[in-house]
Amino acid sequence: MAPPVPKQYARAKLASATDVSRELAKLYREARSGRIDVSDASRLANMLSILARILSDSELEARIEALEQRGSFH
Q: Which of 6, 20, 40, 57 could form a disulfide with 52, with the two C-beta atoms 3.0–4.6 Å apart?
């Protein structure tokens, strides 16, 4: 008996909060329509939420660093 073929997922662009939001909306629609299992969608949504927080923190860190380099906090 051959091993099961792993599911293939299309790669999503996840470079910004907007990208992550778009992917979350797509995931929601796929779960609502039954194209993917709700428990799988929930796990993926959790990972996307974590990624969104990381992106937000990185953006904030970059903005603070830019302000510090301009001398705004001295």
A: 20
**10 in a domain, yes or no?**
no
Is residue 36 classed as helix, strand or coil in its secondary structure?
coil
Overall domain count for the chain: 1
Mean pLDDT for the chain? 89
State the Cα torsion 36-40-42-47 to the nearest 10°: -120
* 31 domain residue, yes or no: yes
Domain enclosing residue 24, as ranges: 17-70
Q: Tell me how far apart the alpha carbons of residues 32 and 35 are, in angstroms, rounded to a whole number.
A: 8
C-alpha atoms less than 13 angstroms from C-alpha of 74 in its C-beta half-sphere: 7
